[in-house]
Amino acid sequence: MNKQILLAKRPEGLPDPSTWKLVSTGIPEPLEGEFLIQQHYISLDPAMRGWLKDRKSYIEPVGIGAVMRAGTVGEVIKSKNQNFKIGDFVSGWGGVQQYSTSNGENYFKVDPSLAPLPKYIGLMGMPGMTAYFGLLQVGKLKESETVLISGAAGAVGSIVGQIAKIKNCTVIGIAGGKAKCDYLINELNFDGAIDYKTENIYEAISKNCPKGIDVYFDNVGGEILDAALANLAMHARIVICGAISQYNATGKIQGPSNYMSLLVNRATMEGFMIFDYRKQYSEAIKQYTLWLQEGKLKSREDIYEGIENFHNTFLRLFSGEKLGKLILKVIE
Amino acid sequence: MNKQILLAKRPEGLPDPSTWKLVSTGIPEPLEGEFLIQQHYISLDPAMRGWLKDRKSYIEPVGIGAVMRAGTVGEVIKSKNQNFKIGDFVSGWGGVQQYSTSNGENYFKVDPSLAPLPKYIGLMGMPGMTAYFGLLQVGKLKESETVLISGAAGAVGSIVGQIAKIKNCTVIGIAGGKAKCDYLINELNFDGAIDYKTENIYEAISKNCPKGIDVYFDNVGGEILDAALANLAMHARIVICGAISQYNATGKIQGPSNYMSLLVNRATMEGFMIFDYRKQYSEAIKQYTLWLQEGKLKSREDIYEGIENFHNTFLRLFSGEKLGKLILKVIE
Q1: Each residue of A216-226: pLDDT tens digit?
Q2: Which backbone phi and psi does A211 adopt, to 5 degrees?
Q3: pTM of the model
Q4: What is the CB-side half-sphere exposure of residue A191 using CA atoms within 13 A?
Q5: Taking CA atoms, what residue in A is nearest to B256?
Q6: Which residue of B243, B262, B276 is in closest CB contact with A260?
Q7: Residues of B with Cβ-Cβ distance to A263 under 8 angstroms
Q8: Using CB atoms, which residue from A262, A267, A272 is nearest to B266?
Q9: Buried b (16+ CB within 10 A) or exposed e, B112-124
Q10: What are the tens digits of pLDDT across the range B282-295?
C-alpha cells in the first residue's frame, strides 16, 4: 500500500494535526511513458507553509484533499519510460507519500555513490541551490565583506555561511540556542554567532558587525530583519529568502519598520525564486562537489523516520528543534 | 538686518510654532575668499523634517540654536571671491535666512535668463535631480513599462511622471484630492490618477495597473507602499525616495507588511541619496533644458512669501496643501 499525507483543511496559524489526513491507497501503476518511484526521503521546508494558503503565489496552493507537495528522493522500481530505468535514483516533486509516478518532468537522476541520498534534497537540492544563487547572484557577494545570516544553522543558512567563509568574508550567524551557536562557531568556523533567544539582537549585531553589514541573508523576517536594517553598511544588499517568523502569523505580517535605512545606506532589498536559476544548477552542483572533496563544505541533515510522524516533524521547522536540513524518511 | 529662522527645539511629531525662533541679526560681512548672497527663494522639502531629529543620518542634524538648513537661490551682492562676482545668481545651502556668506563650496551659478530663479531649486535643483536619477538609474526605467508614483503632484513626483511619459510608459499617479488628480491627468498627461483620500488604494492600483507595476517611485511609505507591493509585476523595482506619511510619526515607523511580495515577484526595493549623483547633474540639466524647449516638460512652483511665514508654509509639506514645488520667497 501507498501511505500518503493529504491536506485535510487549511490551517489558521500554526498547523495542528487536523490539518492533515493520513491515508493508504493502492500503489499506482505507471502509464506509458511513466515510471514508478519508491520514495526514500521527503524534504521538509518552510516554504511548505506558504503552499497551504488559499492564495495564488509563485505556485498554486495545495488543494484540499490533495497529496501534500514536497521534494523527494527515491528509487525507480517500475518503468515505461526509456530515460528512467529500474534502479535509477531520482529526485523531484513526489509529495508526502511513499510511492509516486512521473513522466520525468522536473525529475533528475542522482548518484548515491557520489553523495548520500538525503544530500540530494539538501545541499545538492533546493536548499543548496537557494544558498548558492541567493548569496552569489542576488546578494552579489564580494571577497572580504561582512555577511550576516539569520536561520544560520538551518538548511540554507548553514550553506550560505560556509560559501561566504570560502570567499574570505566575515560571517556572523543568528540562531536559536547555545547548541546551534556552538555548531556555527566550532563546526562551520563562523566568525560570530548570535543567540536571538537570549541576546539583545540590536546590540549583538552592532557588536559583531562593527563595520556594518554588507550582505544580510534573511530567512526569518520580523524583529531580526529590523535589527539588521539598523546596522547596514553603505551599499548593503539584503537578500529576502524567507520570513519564517511570520509564516504562521494569523494577523498582518510584521513589515520592516527600519526600511528607510535602505535610503540612508543606498541599500537594496531583493527577493528571488530559486526556480529561476534552474539552468545554472549544474554549475552549483559541480562547485559543491569540489568543495566537498576539498573538505571545505559540511552539510548536516536532521532525519526523522516514518510518514506517520510527518506532522510533528513538520512543526520542527517552526519550533527550531532541528539542526541543518530537516528530512523525513518514508521508506519502511 | 538679516532675518533668520533658528531651530529652537526638536519637535515630537508634527512641528509646532515653538519649534522655531525668528531672529534678526546684522548682515554678515564676507571674509577674504567669501561672498555675500541676498537670498531670494528658499526651498522647502520633506527631507527637512529628518534633519530635525537628534540622530546621525546621511547628514548631521541641525543644531539647536542654528539656522535651519535649506536650499536657496539668490544674488551675490558683495564679493571677495574671484569666481563669484556681484550680480551673479547662485544656488546652494544658504539656510532659512535672508543673507548668507559662502566660500563657494557647494554653490553653483544659475542663469535667470534661461529659467526663472525658483526653477533652480525645483526642476533644476534637488527635486529635479532626484526625479531624474531616481527613476532612470535607481529605477532602471525601460520604455513602455507601467510606472506608479506616490506624491505624484509634488516637486519630485510630477517630474518623475513626465519623464516616464517621455519614455512612452504608462504612468499612474497617486495624490490627495481632486484638484491634484485633475492636474496630473489634464496638465501632465498621466494615464491615470488615484485620489488616496477618497479611493480604496488597493483596488484603484489594481484597476489602473492591470499588468502590474514595473517601477514604483515611492515618496510616501505607509499604507500606499503596502498597496503597491500587493500589485507588483515580475522583476519590479521599488525606488525608495521618501516616506512623508511617516516623518512625523512619534511611534514606530509603519514598515511594509507586504514586503514578501519582493520574493514572489523577484523584485527589488532600493534606496538612494541624490548627492551621490552630483557629478552627473549637468547631464540632467542639459536634458531638462532641451525638454523644456521642446515643450515636453512642465514644472510648477507653489510660492509663498515672507520668512515670517516659514512655519505655516513648512506644514503644507505634510498637509498636502500645495501643488508642485513648495518655495518661500524671503527677499523683501
Answers
A1: 999 999 999 99
A2: -95, 5
A3: 0.93
A4: 19
A5: A255
A6: B243
A7: 58, 240-242, 271-273
A8: A272
A9: eeebebbbbbbbb
A10: 999 999 999 998 99
